[in-house]
Amino acid sequence: MAGWNERVTDLSIASTMTFDDVACAFPASLQEALELMADEKTRGRLLAGGTDLMVQWESGVLAMPERAVSVKALPELRTIEETEADVIIGASVTHMDIRRSPLTQKHVPSLVDAAATIGGFQIQTMGTIGGSVANASPAGDLAPSLMITDGAVVLASVRGEREVPITAFWTGYRKTDMQPDELIVRFRLPKMPEGYREAWRKLGPRQAQAISKVMGSCRGCVEGGVVKSFRVAIGSVAPTCVRLYDVEKWIEGKKLNEGTLAEAEKRTSDSITPIADIRSTAEYRKWVTGRIVRGFLEQFADQ
Amino acid sequence: MVMAVKELGTLHSVGKGIPRLDADEKVRGLAQYADDLNVPGAWYGFVVRSPVAHGRLRGLKKDPGFDWSQVVVVTPEDIPGNNIVDLMGRDMPFIAHDVIQYLGEPVALVAAASRHLARVAGSHIRADIEELPPLLTLQDMVARYKEDPAQLHELASQTIRKGDTEKALSEADMVVEQEYSAGHQEQLYIEPQGMVAIPESDGTMFIHGSMQCPYYINPELCETLDIPPEKLRVKQSAVGGAFGGKEEFPTLLAGYCALLALKAKRPIKIIYDRNQDILYTTKRHPSWSRYRVGVMKDGTIHAIQTEFLLDGGAYTTLSPVVMYRGILHAAMGYRCENVAIDGHVYRTNTFPNGAFRGFGAPQALWAWESMIDELAEACGMTPHEFRLKNCLHQGDSTPTGGILRDSVGSPTVLEKTLERANFSEKLKQCSHGRRGEKKWYGIGLSFFAHGSGFTGDGEARIKAKVALDLEPGDDGKPVVNVRVSSTEMGQGTCTILPQVAADALSIDIRHTAYPMPDTFKVPDSGPTVASRTAMVVGSTIFSAGKKMKAELEAFVSAELFDGQPVVLEQDRFCGSYGDKEMSFEEAAAQYLSRKGSLRVYDQFKLPEFIKWNQKTFEGDAYPAYAWGCNVAELEVDTLTFEIRVTRVTSYWDIGRLLNPVLAKGQVEGGLVQALGYAMLEKIEIKNGKYDADRMQTYVIPTTLDIPEMDLHFVEFPYEHAQPGAKGVGEIPMDGLAPAIANALVQATGIRMRDLPITPEKLFQMMHEEKTA
Ligand SMILES: Cc1cc2nc3c(=O)[nH]c(=O)nc-3n(C[C@H](O)[C@H](O)[C@H](O)COP(=O)(O)OP(=O)(O)OC[C@H]3O[C@@H](n4cnc5c(N)ncnc54)[C@H](O)[C@@H]3O)c2cc1C
């Protein structure tokens, strides 16, 4: 709020800067980007697809910075690769890249399903996985599918690289474990083991271009009606996306029947305390999260 | 059942799916919208607004540290005339000077060389306001109404009385009572509001921009600017959607621009961004209806008593007429000799609510068509049996005692829709909330009429005037220009009116054109609202075209064909002796070179037998009605209570189809807008402000949300307004919400009486039912 009058009524005058006033650097390599970020005098707001930032700047939710550093085109951040155990996704990989890659389709299928529900084609083509994760919104649709892999965020600075477990990366509402000189370079996601399945469910107000009311992913394995393994994460019901460890632990080893399904549903609902906002009510979110988890288990049981 | 129409002639353009005449320039990006207008020397205007919803303005403070020499500021003292927006009430100022009635009410106007600087300057002006408690929501308004209406500030009221309703209610076998409500709806046209005011050297103020009704702005602004009407020129730029949102609101924007232009002595442009457009323009009125309806055991409706309340927002604006249309539709469609309706509009401290496609009818019909299903149930009848038993037929009388003389699509549209949708069979397959199913299926019905043209005495007062000009076109060839103030805003006016003119003259449509309305060039054919253009303006053009045809035939006969009788048919003048023939183009060129251009005027006249009492609301509220019937099918996911409308089947009688492709487009678009109203769109008020203020938070349907649509027309042309159209603009908005609510009952057993219909509400009501 740069104006003299604190009680302005338009979002449009909340910021008295325009995007033209932002000095944007386009480093040619990762090393150059890290060096820019290392020095307070050249450091700028990291900018990938800009699909979150441009909106937040325009609406005044975020003040426009003096400087920005664009990482979208850095070749080091644009690849999807695999090792024996993991899929490695660069931070500037777009949602559309994720949808189209055979590696992600095979090894992290719910991430592909999630990416397909983000915005529309334009947003999927501009928006990146790094931007989505760094934006740290509890409604970020990629979060649950990342969490259930028990994978890691790889951060880099001139000081070197470090890995943070995805489950520990978001420290609060729109807060992350990143340092000011760091950027996300890639994600290391353990592949879905043989015989396992993943599922994704998003509830939004409409069929596309929808911010989630509640969404979640699970990875698991059910054999002979008995849950061998089950990991589940839910977004939009807490300040960050959450893993439901208690429910996971409780259901593992249980035979799926109406009794255990109902209990899993109840335990799920009991384990969260969502809030009401413009998209949904607290009561519905609490109830429907239980229903989604039940739906996941039913889906696995059907196999 | 299509009637014989007198003197219609053969139709060659009317009835054909002629591509929109504006399609080419719009597809190529050539159309000039308000923001595209390049106005040399223009500055940008900005509106400084009250940050509180209700209060007393003590004064304005300007930051002494800001360089004011680079901007122009307008406050009430700068207004040359009266600080009044001359709509139905004269209670709204252009710039607040005393009481603040809504959050966002203008307290000053600013202009500067850049949009950015104007905004920055605006943030250096502070209104000093003594806050008063506001009344913000429909819920609070209704609570006060139930307690004691005297606590509310009434902006308008009206009653309808037929028979003896109290007595009839006491005679009825059963009396069913229910309440329904619906919230705001934003028009969300693609192009936000935008306007330019250009002060010209001769003292003319030229207003150019996005609008539906050029002749609203002139004369409404004359009093404020203190200039005579002939010094106020208003021209429409290309309009990217309006839906009523550009009916009365553009007067405000034109006023802001013009007031700044007078002081700055240069052109001023204001283009709202989406956030401003949602926060500070009109919306559909939130509504509340309460019914007490007496029915007999055999399923006849014996008495209808209803109250219809609208949340008017801060000022009167057009709210009285919106309420009139609401009450005129609140008991429409069915036979009943005892009707008592009370309509009220009350003030709340939000932006004044205003015109939006349907204009009160969607609110009224949402309640009434839900109520009809509840009545059917009370009588132990199916929704369709009850409607077939009670619906109006030709010769029946409406709630105001008007007689449905002709062009009555009831019960045809109802019967045909039921058959097409296989309604009675599918009704038996509904789930009624049965346990153990993955999806619940439901089917629901609604049946409704929409009055064509202005409500009540409107058309008689306006007397729509049109002109046709035969003149040289840009290419020098003769062209018949349709001169009307009726605007193109995406709905097809600029195509259907030339179609009508072409057929009246019996010429090819390529000889006709529709120039953008400009009040210095066109007569006042009235505003482009109320589903009136096709019927009222179309028929007036038709008769003007017939006049021009006769004039040209006389000319060709006398001056070119040696006095033999001549007819113009299918683009050719033919002498009756069979020896002479001439193309329209050639003869018209002859006319232009010998006599100069030809202007023909005409004026709309209601048929003599249309009688209306504007005080008592008795008689023919509308000259004719369009009729529609919707069947909605839906599925509820029993895991999450997500609701998906899968299919809509409907028949429409909109009179003669002028252009079936455009008509279908209107119906499809209207149904999508109605789907949003029914299931998605909502605005709540947080701290005096709308919580949904961007497209991120104001959620409308996407293409993926649209159900399969099976749409059909049956034509009952309206003989007294040839070629017989009755209007299609609004009726598609009217009936989908209740059809969906009625389907939801069949699917789940839950009756939703408040819009929108959401999974959250379904969950809450299911839960309450279980615990009850
Ligand atoms: C119309 C629309 C619809 C949308 N729909 C959805 C939806 O359905 N679901 C959904 O989840 N999201 C949606 N979004 C949000 C958005 O598209 C995603 O969150 C997107 O992935 C953000 O990526 P980006 O590259 O555009 O990020 P940017 O906007 O460029 O950046 C976002 C944040 O990440 C930081 N950042 C970017 N790159 C890095 C990096 N390498 N390291 C560290 N920090 C970094 C930036 O500084 C900023 O704080 C939508 C957005 C829009 C505009």
Which helices and strands appear, and what pairs or packs with what?
The complex is a heterodimer of chains A (303) and B (772).
Chain A: E1 23-25, H1 30-38, E2 45-47, H2 53-59, E3 67-70, E4 80-82, E5 86-90, H3 95-100, H4 102-107, H5 109-116, H6 121-126, H7 129-135, H8 143-147, E6 152-157, E7 160-165, H9 166-169, E8 170-172, E9 175-176, E10 183-190, E11 197-203, E12 214-223, E13 226-235, E14 242-243, H10 245-251, H11 258-271, H12 282-302
Parallel strand pairs in A: 1-3, 2-3
Antiparallel strand pairs in A: 4-5, 5-10, 6-7, 6-10, 8-9, 11-12, 12-13, 13-14
Chain B: H1 23-27, E1 43-49, E2 55-62, E3 72-74, E4 99-100, E5 106-112, H2 115-122, E6 125-131, H3 138-147, E7 154-162, H4 165-171, E8 174-182, E9 194-199, E10 205-209, H5 214-220, H6 222-225, E11 232-236, H7 249-264, E12 268-271, H8 274-279, E13 287-295, E14 301-313, H9 319-329, E15 339-347, H10 361-378, H11 383-390, H12 412-421, H13 423-427, E16 439-452, H14 458-462, E17 465-472, E18 478-483, H15 493-505, E19 512-513, H16 533-560, E20 566-569, E21 572-575, E22 581-583, H17 584-595, E23 598-603, E24 612-613, E25 618-619, E26 624-637, E27 643-653, H18 660-679, E28 685-686, E29 689-690, E30 708-713, H19 736-748, H20 759-771
Parallel strand pairs in B: 1-12, 10-11, 14-15, 18-19, 27-30
Antiparallel strand pairs in B: 1-5, 2-4, 2-6, 3-5, 7-15, 8-13, 9-10, 9-12, 13-14, 16-26, 17-18, 17-23, 20-21, 21-22, 24-25, 26-27, 28-29
Helix pairs in contact in B: 9-10, 10-11, 10-19, 15-16, 18-19
Flavin-adenine dinucleotide binds at residues 45-53, 55, 71, 91, 118-119, 123, 126-128, 130-132, 134-135, 140-141, 183-184, 209-211 of chain A.
